[in-house]
Write a structure and sequence with these properties.
Two copies of one chain form a homodimer. Chain A is an alpha/beta fold. Helix content of chain A is 30%, strand content 21%.
Chain lengths: 350, 350
């Protein structure tokens, strides 16, 4: 902490993403003058050590945002809806990791590698997209820029940490029960607030978030709608099937996409992604090099591999995209937005 | 065992699929007069109890097939190539669960619900398709019959038992090591005979079988080529991404398909699959009903759910297909082929 810099608040400081936000701020040497760690009344009073200094978690209230420059929210949609505008009213810029404002036409939805310039249109709140959307658009954007983009069909392999720390604990406890042949009762996944809960250890659950009337889940519709908004491609054809698998951290995605141009080779796509911001190309089948969630944990980047041309469709390609859902999918993208705001002069030291 | 019936040989009797073949023969009350359990020299001499009777595993040799009516092979491609023709020479019909003869133009590749009549063209050997192919074509065939089929894009979530019993043991031991923070060394997956081995517990590996020069794996090319052959659709556009996930038994598939007809609803597809042979429809999002691998273990059927129409492509649909890869994907389909052979009069009691 120095005397220069910003007063930063983290709302939801005790959650899986909040914890990562704090660690990322430290790791990235974010210019912090003062740090407020906020949470629900339930977690208030807990103590956390950040960079050698002890902090007491405070209950998030409208007054908590007095003097705050940048507020990173990750405490659920209703907290963002209630307190986000209160923070803005008090002069803070809000970077919100919930879905509360993502599709609001007055709120930019930003992945810095893709649409950093949308930050200029902000009205106090900037939305951080859904984790599964972020890593996909980081990989797709350089391709769109060069060859156009017409269609995307994605099937996800999502980690349980996307459903919070309790889901990770459930995965590990269940796995242990199954290995030692003990009974267990699923309580968290697929969706804590939904009616039925199912085994996730050694299983795959094709439900993330609740279902909409059209048969898609909210998670799937988030991927569909957010991708179009972030990429400024309202006509893009996107469809998604979102599946939870027994992985703690790291989302994987099998992505089929069609570009606008004919005659492009897989090597041209690989060359593009080799130099793309935020992307690490891991694509060498001969040496069994491809991205895997176990290798991406703790990394800020989006890992792409298995790039190959469709055997029938000249403009069709397949790729495999992996990233740490708590970092690029959440905490890192939020901190990165805050860094962009500073660089673009959209937040100024008071 | 009765005096009537057939002399059946199981080759690879100690393997994961061989064991399921024996259990399936018993469970299905297959008319067996005599049962020969064969394996490599390494496993010969072991004793197995089948239906209360003890059998000693014999080493598979050309002479082992004297008097055999039906030989179910599942001991690896090279064993099938060596001993399959020897069995045929001695009057047996071979149902081969390896990839040795699948794409051979003189060998029918059969999923009874789809192309039982191809059995009439057999020349002694009938090939059982790859596990991931079988469950997909069972779900697609009724749709093709009614509405035609133009394109398929599949991403798989495959169980480790497809790589044999050692892979299942590796999954469980690794999971235990990770849960108790002990070191471990991957030795089996993704492909025992390939150079590098990777963690499968709490991970996802986008490699099943080795890579071909076109960037697809052999597993992916099997799904592509076998689907066209079984469905008699050489022009069908098929592409596949095959991924191993930490599940012991039960393959899942996210399948996008395009039919030939316009204006078809998801409910029409559901109605078709409700009455389709070998299919159990589990599709009620409101009540969180959809197929999951943990629920399909030990079942012969193919479970289909999450059927929904694509939001952009009128002829496009998505579905989620799950089946026990050791049963419908291997043992049950092989025994079912044997049952079809009997019913069609293509094998006769001696």
């Amino acid at each position: 902490m120095s005397k220069k810099g910003f007063h930063v608040a983290v709302v939801g400081a005790t959650g899986a993403v909040g914890q990562q936000m704090i660690q990322t701020l430290v790791k990235e040497n974010f210019p912090i003058k003062q740090l407020s760690l906020l949470s629900s009344a339930r977690s208030a009073g807990k103590k956390i050590v950040v960079n050698g200094q002890e902090y007491t978690i405070q209950e998030a209230k409208p007054e908590s945002f007095e003097g705050v420059d940048i507020a990173l929210f990750s405490a659920g949609g209703s907290v963002s809806k209630d307190l986000g505008p209160e923070a803005v009213k008090r002069g803070a810029i809000v970077v919100d990791n919930t879905s509360a404002f993502r599709m609001d036409t007055n709120t930019p939805l930003v992945v810095p590698e893709v649409n950093e310039n949308d930050l200029h249109q902000h009205n106090g709140i900037i939305a951080n997209p859904n984790c599964s959307t972020i890593q996909m658009v980081v990989a797709l954007e350089p391709i769109r820029q060069k060859f156009g983009l017409k269609k995307v069909i994605v099937s996800t392999y999502q980690a349980v940490s996307g459903a919070g720390a309790a889901a990770v604990q459930e995965l590990h406890e269940q796995a242990q029960s199954i290995l030692t042949n003990e009974p267990f009762e699923p309580k968290v996944l697929p969706v804590k607030s939904d009616q039925s809960h199912y085994q996730i250890a050694f299983n795959a659950i094709p439900q993330i978030d609740k279902f909409e009337e059209n048969g898609f889940t909210f998670e799937e519709m988030k991927m569909i709608n957010e991708t179009k908004k972030i990429m400024h491609l309202p006509e893009l054809q996107v469809s998604a099937t979102c599946v939870r698998i027994p992985v703690a951290v790291g989302h994987s995605e099998s992505v089929y996409f069609e570009i606008e141009e004919n005659g492009v080779s897989a090597n041209e796509i690989k060359a593009l992604l080799m130099d793309a911001p935020g992307v690490i190309l891991q694509d060498d089948p001969e040496n069994q090099l491809y991205p895997m969630p176990a290798n991406c944990v703790g990394e800020n980047d989006v890992f792409v591999g298995r790039i190959r041309k469709d055997l029938d469709e000249d403009r069709g390609f397949h790729m495999w995209v992996v990233s740490d859902n708590l970092l690029k999918g959440a905490a890192w993208n939020s901190v990165q937005i805050a860094e962009s705001l500073i660089r673009l002069g959209l937040v100024i030291e008071k």
